[in-house]
Write a structure and sequence with these properties.
This protein has about 750 residues and is of the alpha/beta class. It is about 60% helix and about 10% strand. The chain has 29 helices and 15 strands. The strands form three sheets. An eight-stranded mixed β-barrel has the order 8-9-10-11-12-13-14-15, surrounded by five helices. It has a five-stranded mixed beta sheet with strand order 2-3-1-6-7, with helices on both faces. Helix 5 packs antiparallel against helix 6, helix 7 runs antiparallel to helix 9 (about 230-255) and helix 20 runs parallel beside helix 22 (about 605-615). The radius of gyration is 44 Å and the shape is elongated.
């Protein structure tokens, strides 16, 4: 059997509309000329049968609770159709009077009860008992409102049927249908039933108005026997059910909706908030109030039943509003807590911390610390392990702070401590505490911190956080795993660094930087084989700024990325020029790359673009890195490997002064070792003093690496280094850093050692 489609449901809806149109046409025709009483009953039977077929179609296209609901409605409409056939057969008998037969009435009662059961058994959203109180009160308000309106209509209308049994059955049908309508309204407008059933239930709810309307209209229709209330109500019911089935079939067969991204606009947020408020109870109260106002104006008083019902509704409404106020108060408390606390660690956040500072005037101490290298560690371990690490760090900071202190998570991996009074050595205690591993997911991780601290009282208290962060930044300038106390000199330094960073940006934009090159020579002849590119900054109309001053500022401000890209491009341009003029005798160019640049995933691409732009072969470039930059591995070491894959050389600068030099020789694909000046200064001394310099030369030769001695200042040092096995050296003895134009002359005049 072919599965029904939306076209099938549309066709059934059109058929239901046709039955209603025929009923309207024949009904009006019978008003103006005599017609048999059974004229409209065949159409009514067809309309009832169409509803049963339509419900079966909706059930066939649905699944789960939707299919079960429409299957139950199929049974209910089937019973309704059977009752209609029974009533039509009775009316068609010769000499029959148009009245409601007991068999038909019984079928109608059963059909309405089955429909009510189908509605009641629809699933609700799961809530806690507190959340269910509001919907229950809303349901009570709607039920009381409907009861008041229906009872008033029934009480003020004449009974359409004679006989106690038939009158009772008619009353049961009216009340049961109204009850089913209330359930439908509650399900769709109060408790919620899900997206698939929302539209269909809104279409079904008006059916509850039809039996009361037929009760009221019955006495007026008696003069036209062919307009029996049943033949007027059922075609309209068929159209409403057909509309609901069409909506349900479209929803059942529609593709799954993509997750909706909620916009952040304020107006949209207000509209979403309004959509969460059910209008059904308010509409019920409004209709009931209007009815009571009309009754009062018409009669001058309210009957005891209406007055009592109004009191019950008032109590329900007041109780509902009181519960809403309690819910709002609870929500405001929860939002206030969320606004002042960190979700991940449960600690107070920066807003809470600054508010606590603003309220204090007594002597206080503020310490700020952040985890060294947390970003790289988080990338390597993953976000879940990073979150667990932050929670462990929060516990460690809280243990150090002790009772009476406020510990907060200020930023991603930055924590703050606010302690009463002067607490000597608070920053040092934090640093020392983190030198013990943190327990994270059944493993120990060693993550150090760098900290800053500030102490003050009175008007200075609100500014302690800023001062502690200034001290933290000063500590970072000198390295990791350190503590620094705030001083007035640090404020001046911080302001100077901020101004220097702005000037750096302007200098890059206005071309105030230039490169000098320090030769690297081959021993013993002193032939120039390479150069190290050194950046210099000459601001307009100002003295030259030392690299020792502006490089740290560029590192911490992030400008080192733009400055480093300029250095790479300028050095490649000069190297390409020397290669063009001198061929294979042109010098290799060493370019220093900072730890911050190695964390930039775009660095290999920047180098490759510069080589391509200037037509330079990769073997003419050597990238110099420090041991500390790649000590932790991770993203920095990955970048180094990508650079080596480009074909450029890699040099470990200041070799021998870092954490794990020998380990790096196995993991880092270097081609050159640059031995630090501190070891070179000891040559021409005792054998013990020369031991390290000699060993490093031997290690480099064994591993097939070039060893370059840095900081050579005398002829004796140069000769002794050659005797110890060094073949390359650089230092002031050979030449100071010079502009690119002077390198050509040096290529023709080597520095001789003998």
């Amino acid at each position: 059997m072919t599965r029904p489609s939306p076209r099938t449901a549309a066709a059934l809806l059109i058929l239901a509309v046709c039955w209603l149109a025929i009923t309207v046409v024949l009904g009006f025709a019978g008003i103006y000329r005599p017609v048999p009483p059974w004229l409209l009953w065949p159409i009514t039977v067809a309309a009832a049968g169409t509803t049963a077929l339509a419900c079966r179609t909706a059930a066939a296209t649905g699944a789960g609770p939707v299919r079960a609901f429409w299957r139950r409605l199929t049974v209910a409409t089937g019973v309704l159709t059977a009752g209609t056939v029974s009533q039509a057969g009775g009316v068609a008998l010769p000499a029959a009077s148009v009245t409601l037969y007991q068999l038909a009435a019984g079928c109608y009662v059963v059909a309405v009860l089955l429909a009510g059961i189908a509605l009641v058994r629809l699933p609700n959203r799961r809530r806690g008992w507190r959340a269910n109180v509001g919907p229950l009160l809303d349901t009570g308000i709607v039920a009381v409102a409907v009861a008041l309106v229906v009872s008033h209509l029934l009480g003020t209308s004449s009974v359409p049927e004679s006989g106690r049994v038939l009158t009772a059955l008619m009353l049961v049908i009216v009340l049961a249908t109204c009850g089913a309508a209330v359930v439908a309204l509650v399900k769709v407008g109060v408790t919620g039933t899900g997206r698939l059933l929302r539209g269909p239930l809104w279409a079904l709810a008006p059916i509850g108005l039809l039996p009361p309307a037929s009760w009221v209209a019955g006495p007026f229709l008696r003069q036209w026997p062919h307009l029996y209330p049943t033949v007027v109500v059922l075609p309209v019911t068929g159209v409403l059910i057909g509309l609901a089935v069409w909506l349900q079939t479209r929803a059942n067969l529609a593709p799954p909706a993509a997750p909706r991204v909620q916009p952040l606009a304020t107006g949209t947020g207000r509209r979403r908030a309004w959509r969460k408020i059910s209008a059904v109870p308010y509409a019920a109260v409004a209709v009931t109030t209007a009815m009571m106002l009309g009754v009062t104006l018409d009669t001058g008083f309210l009957s005891p039943g209406l007055a009592g019902g109004s009191v019950v509704m008032t109590v329900l409404v007041v109780t509902r509003q009181f519960m809403a106020l309690l819910d709002n108060s609870t929500l405001l408390d929860r939002l206030d807590d969320q606004a002042h606390h960190d979700d991940l660690t449960g600690l107070p956040n920066r807003r809470f911390f600054t508010a606590a500072l603003a309220r204090r005037t007594d002597l206080s101490t503020v310490a700020v610390c952040d985890l060294d290298g947390f970003a790289a560690l988080n990338d390597r371990l993953g976000d879940e392990a990073g979150d667990a690490l932050l929670r462990a760090a929060a516990e460690r900071a809280g243990a150090v702070a002790g009772d009476g202190a406020v510990v907060a998570r200020l930023l991603g991996d930055e924590f703050g401590v606010l302690a009463p009074g002067a607490v000597p050595g608070l920053a040092e205690k934090l640093v020392a505490a983190f030198r013990s591993p943190l327990r994270v997911d059944s493993r120990d991780l060693l993550v150090t911190v760098t900290a800053g601290v500030a102490t003050g009282g009175g008007e200075a208290v609100p500014d302690l956080l800023r001062r502690a962060e200034v001290a933290l930044q000063a500590a970072k300038y000198t390295g990791a795993d350190r503590a620094r106390e705030h001083s007035t000199a640090l404020d001046a330094t911080a302001a100077h660094h901020a101004e220097l960073a702005a000037a750096l940006r302007r200098g890059l934009d206005h071309g105030e930087f230039r490169l000098l090159y320090q030769p690297i020579v081959e021993l013993p002849g002193g032939v120039l084989t390479g150069v190290e590119a050194l950046v210099r900054w000459q601001p307009a109309d100002q003295p030259v700024v030392s690299p020792a001053e502006f490089i740290p500022v560029a590192e911490h401000s992030g400008l080192i990325l733009d400055l480093g890209a300029w250095i790479i491009d300028a050095a490649c341009a000069d190297a390409a020029s020397w290669q063009l003029r001198h061929g294979a005798n042109g010098p290799r160019v060493n370019i220093n790359v900072s730890a911050r640049q190695l964390l930039d995933p775009d660095l290999p691409g920047t180098v490759a673009e510069a080589l391509h732009r200037h037509g330079l072969t990769p073997d003419r470039i050597t990238i110099e890195i420090t041991e500390t930059a790649v000590f932790a591995g991770g993203a920095a070491l990955d970048t180094v490997r990508e650079l080596r894959e480009l074909g450029v050389g890699l040099a470990l600068d200041d070799f021998g002064t870092g954490h794990s030099s020998l380990t790096l020789l196995r993991t880092c694909p270097v081609t050159t070792l640059k031995v630090d000046k501190s070891f070179i200064d000891d040559v021409n001394g005792t054998a013990e003093q020369e031991a390290i310099a000699s060993s490093l030369s031997t290690i480099a030769a064994t591993l097939g690496l070039r060893a370059v001695a840095e900081g050579v200042e005398t002829r004796d040092q140069a000769e002794r280094l050659h005797a110890l096995g060094y073949r390359y050296a650089q230092g002031y003895f050979f030449a100071r850093p010079v502009p690119a134009a002077d390198i050509d002359a040096m290529l023709a005049a080597p520095v001789l050692l003998s």
